[in-house]
Structures
1.
Amino acid sequence: MQEIYDLMAANPYSEYFWYNNEDNTVEIDYDKFDDLINEKGYQNAKEELSRLEKLGSEVREIEKQTIGLRNDFENLADAWRDSYLDLENRVLDAIVSRQQDIIDN
């Protein structure tokens, strides 16, 4: 994310396009973008836009991976909890069984 912020801070074309943090998209003012007359400026703006779009794609991919890791962690936590509860129940059953054996004998 910091890379996107740094890129946008140094972006001389921020009046033409910018990164929307709320929905992780590149916003473009096509009217202003089309009004660029200087071909070199236009080419530089296109290159910056391409870099920004690539970074946006990378951010979305990282978010997907983060969600996947969060889900994996939650699944592991659930499995650990279930294993712990199963062990706890077996220990309690063994204690009850032992106490019953003592009472019966």
2.
Amino acid sequence: MENMEDDLGRPSEKLRKKLIEQELKMRKKQPEHWAKTKYRKYAKPYTDLEMVQIKELDKKRASRRKKSRAAGKKAKEKRKARAKK
């Protein structure tokens, strides 16, 4: 069996279109891959309300970090002052 096309003959255009149509139907039944929505930047895994809540939390975290950095700098300055004495 050298070539399958020689043995079976060339498939008709009608058969090819039918097979493609069946394949597309089967693909539509497949669930979307989890990585498409979870990790891609352009995917929208959250609703608009959830995005607003996330942004508010980010602002709160940023202000906490700022306060802790300021407190850390003050403590560092106190240690330096004690070390000089």
3.
Amino acid sequence: MWRFASKRVRPPLATRLVLDLIGFAPTKIQCEEVRRALCLLCGPGVDLFFLNAAVLLSRYRFTDSKQRQVQTNLRAAQHGKIGETRVGRLATLPEGSVIEPSN
């Protein structure tokens, strides 16, 4: 529950921080500087986030074996046969283990 709550709180806090940094005041008419900053954030700013994600993910290869591993982990989690280890990663099933999807 705590993870869910913390994920729900972070985006509004980050948004508020960014708006405070550019001088946005919600109850006032915005000056030209603030309006320009908002335009940059909503235009090229968003593009930069997508570009950064594309660059980071371009090095990650999602191969067929990785796809099978993810599907196995998801099926195992649905059946309660997998949990988090001390480092917070999903434990894998022994080689050759098969969990049939439930309908």
4.
Amino acid sequence: MATRKKTITEPKVVKGSHLTVTTYPDGRTELEWDDEALLRDVRAAILKAESNIPAVIQTEKVKVKTKKPAVKTKTAVEKKKPAAITAKAKAKTKKEKK
């Protein structure tokens, strides 16, 4: 049994930094320019090309969460138990006294 091909009724929108392209199902496309964003990008590029100091464009900082390791590893130098040290120290001092 054959199935009917679905028709797309909504336009496809692709938004860039300063240009938005809208493609309709009938094949027609519309271009919408964001003049302020385009002008800002061009000015930043000109400043960067003409100056020795790099132009800085403010961007939002994204915090990245880091995962902690599942298994805790032992440190390279672990502290010895005080009781073990005193027992060994007592044994050494007894041998030295003899």
